[in-house]
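Methods — Computational structure assignment.
A single polypeptide chain was analysed. Its primary sequence is given first, followed by the predicted tertiary structure written as structure tokens.
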Amino acid sequence: MAKKPILFYLSAGHGGSDPGAVSGKFVEADMARTVMAACRKELLAHKGRTYKVAYPEKDGSGMSLAAHVADMARYKAKGYRVVSVDGHFNAGGGDGDEVWVWKGTVTKSRLGKVLADLIIAELKKEGQNTRGVKYTNDLYFLKGIGVPVLVEYGFIDDKTDRKGFDTKKELEAYGKATARALIKYWEKYK
């Protein structure tokens, strides 16, 4: 029996009227949208792909977390293996990225860690420090089906950390790095 196709589900984390973290002119929702748009563009440009890409917030409209989880379930019901990335930027002081993975089921946690490690490795190539893989059952997006991860690309309120992602070009590089990680995941599990 053939494996179901992979669908990469992208979310900018904050949208609509929720700006997320704000530090001066830096707004998390805007930054996350730039990263996810670049990720989507890179994924769609990949030759020979058999995966699908969904980015329901590409127009910047935003969706509730419950709507995202329901949307992922609809894709699963259509026969896709859903692999999702929710992009964010941290606040509260700190340095580096971190990728959050579901702490629950063994398969979801194991595959989530594989994807998290791939994302971290690609972000390191862009010069970002890492705080590593984190596990939780408290982040609602991670309750989605399939293999969901939540990426905190860096600390928006830390001037030193922010030097690596304070331009559109650098944010787009983070999106391309995320896409490279997703493509490597697809190559491994297609």
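Note: The two ends are 13 Å apart (CA to CA).
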